[in-house]
UniProtKB/TrEMBL annotation:
This protein's name: Uncharacterized protein
TonB-dependent receptor-like beta-barrel domain mapped to chain residues: 268-718
Molecular function in Gene Ontology: siderophore uptake transmembrane transporter activity
Motif (TonB C-terminal box): 753-770
Amino acid sequence: MLRSATKKMMPLMCMLASTVLGANEADSGLFALELDDLLELTVTSGSNRAEQFRHTPASIQVITEQDIKQRGYTSFSEVIADLSGFDLNTSYGVDHSLFYQRGYRTPSNQRTLVMVNGVINNQLWGHDFSANRQTPLTMIERIEVLSGPAGAVYGPNAFLGVINIITKKGKALEQDGHKVSAQAQLADFGSKALDLNLLGKAGRWSYWLGIKQFKSDGPGVDDFARWDFVDEQYLSDPRFWGPVLNYGHDGVPYGQYVSKDDESGVFGEVSFDTLTLGVNNWITHNGYGLQFAFDRGQPNARWSRRTSSYYLRHETPLFDKGTLKHFIRYRSEQRYGDWAEASPDPLSTKSRNSYVTISDWNSTSSSWKVRQDYEYQYNSEVHLAAGLKYERKELTSAYEICGYFASAYCTFEDPADLGPYGLGKGVYYSTDPDMQVIRYQLKDMPDENLVTTTDKGVYFRASYKQADWSLSGAIRWDNNSVYGTFIKPRVALTYDINATNTVKAIYATAFQEPAPVQLYGGWNGRNANPELAPEEVKDLTLIWMNQSGAWFSDLSVYYSRYNNVIKEEANNAGERDVLGAEWRLRYEAENPWFDAPQISAYMNYTYTKTTSHINFDHQLGVWVGDGTPACEDDAAACGHYRVDLGDIAPHKLNLGLNLPLSTRLSINTRLNYVSEKSLYLRNPLRQQGTKLGDYLVTNLSLVWQQDALSVHLKVKNLFDSQVYHAGSEQGSSGNQFRDENGDLLRSQGFYSSIFPQVGRNWELGVTVVF
């Protein structure tokens, strides 16, 4: 298979090589970064200003451009998989990968802010970020990952941490001109991508542009580890699906496992002196992958998320030692798609018959945001900053869903038309010979279904620095027109014990806004709750950093207390405690085996213990414990719980080794170990005592570079390990697959309890710089 793929890539490689013959010599960056360079690196995400990596008052890790090249990263989720402090679950669907930072399980990627040069890319309606393949990695100079709440610095929703993608800039070019990086990728499962980065400078003008286009047929059923709900028999059983099987998507009939991906992104800026116009636009089209049990949801569909963001920045001097920064942004977004569903009829024999629908879904939202920031270097010891923010959002209220159950909102359906079974115009039965289907009609959202909210924010930040220690603090006031006012402080102390040891102590707070999709966007399968209160967190983190010769160590321990936890059912329920530790090591040494640059290695170890103050009673089918609706009348009878939340591995270990074989060729090996873990409290398998076993995945990248041309060959899951990830949302499908006669049984719920992972797969990439 690898040999045939290489043959397919040969014409492309030849074409790119011919381009290189007339190109300027590329930067020799594959082996360029040394440990001292990393420690002297300037980062901006700790306090939202430039600081030395070692002295930034935060727990922060940095992935550099050289790391991306050496390891052959081509997607955002690959980067996340090798970081400390993250649990990663891959569904191969709408959310290709779900990541939980610092042991906090969430319904989606909602509680970590993902930014590009400080511009937030989480969506307005769901507060989530699609960790799919739409982000161009050739545009990245470094990725700064801040662990822990940062509400006093970044405002609402910097709840678990911040991921800030810092891009290359045209203004950084040494002389006027242009530079282009183009990477073509060909991979398993019919995957192909083009990743472009363009930089330019001409006098006072400069620009940068990143473009990514990714398409894939996705893995097939036989590519996954064995799991009985991943079986096309469930998709094609007429007892479950009936007239749905008369239809399909994109020329492929329902009843087959197909889950395709089509994703793209355009990011860029044009600058004139200190005036910058920027764009962050991306769109993802995905099938549903393994997200839903196959007897309830057809993967062969398209669910889309679109974000269009345009902004203007300007900086002007303020007195002799200050800067005034202006920022204005408009963004609009949409999430939409179609969905084929089979809801078991409990009155039929073993619930094998279904009420079936093929429906259209849509939501649109937009906002205007204005921000003004002031920075002032009072003297060599004192730095001051303050700022104002105002944002007006226009959000979808009810999910617009047509062809569905009667409780759903649809602009062009008569609410009095309850269909053939009195359940809704689009609801049919699996014994019906056919059904009426109208799709792809939803576009603009009517004004009657929009909600307007406003956000206001004010912050003040100060730092005081002496020769071997610094003290920094921030406080932020935020007001939302729906849920009110919050004040969040942050304090950090940094102390250099000596030239090789630094310690930090950080107390930080933040709050997470209820996502509008949970406030307003309910449907018959999930109630909305306009009474949701924001979540809050208080966190104490202690850090010890040490550099000793070829070694660099970064150890942090933390304790976090979360209040008003919002679960997937859209209600506030109880508290969570997280106790954790992250230990990051980096090592560099002279190459003892080859006449080549130094070898480098890293280790990231994570320990996490997440405790929930409520439990799920599988007999009653309700959450019980302090603060839950089931216990409001008789809290004493419910008791007090301190139970393992589940889906969070207690131990995770990431190991990596980069071994140059020559000045042009290197081998990079990365191992990811995840320990055994309990499943989520709501998951039916938790009641059975089922746990996900530990696993080890090995990834290998072979990277070759010659002047402006580089090629990487990457093999993921090298030893073809059988790997399973935990399911998302309720994880409610269970594992009752067949009855005593071997006949198919229905799942216990819509969301898959377990995501089987693909085995060994490959990728070939060719990059040219000119």
